[in-house]
Amino acid sequence: MKLVKESAGPLCVIHVEEDRIDASVAIQFKDAFRELVNDEPGGVLLDLAKVQFLDSSGLGAVVAARKLLGGERSLELAALSPAVDKVMTLTRMNSVFAIHDSVADAMAAHGISADG
Amino acid sequence: MHLTFELTSSAADVRETLGLVRGDLMRLGVNQEHWDTAEIVLAEVLNNVVEHGYAEEGGGAITLNLEITPQALHVQVRDQGRAFPGLTLPDARSHDLTALDVDALPEGGFGWALIHHLTQDLAYVRKAGENRLSFAIATPD
Predict the structure, then answer these.
(1) Domain total for chain A?
(2) pLDDT higher than 80, residue B141
(3) pLDDT in tens, A23-44
(4) CB contact, 8 Å: B94 with chain A?
(5) Best interface-test mutation with B: which of A91, A95, A97 has the largest number of B CBs within 10 A?
(6) Distance between CA atoms of A50 and A47, rounded to whole angstroms?
């Protein structure tokens, strides 16, 4: 499970460098996410641009990641593929997460310039 | 057009099989939107067999039959795992998410909601020591 962390001012961006978050890697995702955000004080943006498929186990792992951050820190999502968007919508998890069209949009929403 | 896939009960095998099914269906002209829906349903159904039917024990046999018509993708999944409790399929559970604290968010229980929502003619029988689950996924307009 390859996740890449990028700090963008107050926001920590986690890029998921995998094309699937499914039952076979859900636990690895959770563990890798925990490692990366452990010492991050602020909110986290999860970049899902490369993820073409998310099943209910993968969704459970994303929810677990959200819970890991607690009530003080936010987890937002960016760049959902059509299949990922469909799962988020049908399970109504799109009401739990702030969802942005792209990482650049999310940055702009947080007042961070894209080239900064 | 009929396709049959044999796999064993592991999450890795489910992933690999979905890749094979995708390749075959794309070759046969199934469009991306139809496949996106089919993949969600097939992943939930097959992982359910792995996790519950065979209770995470590897090596259980699963047979996936697909029939493609212009109107729909017809699917039958057969396994020799445990029967569904009460010989009935779980309902589509729906969570009221808006009222929940972060700590109370559900991490599971989404699968059957997705399956019920995205399929037609969902049916289950236990016969000859097998679970037989069948359903259709309509071709998008």
Answers:
(1) 1
(2) yes
(3) 999 999 999 999 999 988 999 9
(4) yes
(5) A91
(6) 8
- Residue B38: closest CA among A66, A24, A83: A83
A92: left (phi over 0), alpha (psi -120 to 50) or beta: left
| A47 within some domain | yes
Please tell me which residue of chain A has the smallest CA distance to B105.
A63
Domain ranges of chain B: 2-138
> Looking at this protein, which amino acid is placed at residue B22?
R
Distance from CA of A83 to the nearest CA of B (A): 5
- Chain mean pLDDT for chain B: 94
Please provide the CATH number assigned to the domain covering B2-138.
3.30.565.10
Whether residue B44 and residue A56 make contact (CB cut-off 8 A), yes or no, is yes
**Closest CA relative to residue A93, chosen from A64, A73, A116:** A64
C-alpha–C-alpha distance, residues B131 and A86, integer Å: 28
Around Cβ A112, how many Cβ atoms within 10 Å?
Answer: 17
pLDDT of res. B84: 95
| CATH at residue A35 | 3.30.750.24
Domain limits for position A21: 3-109
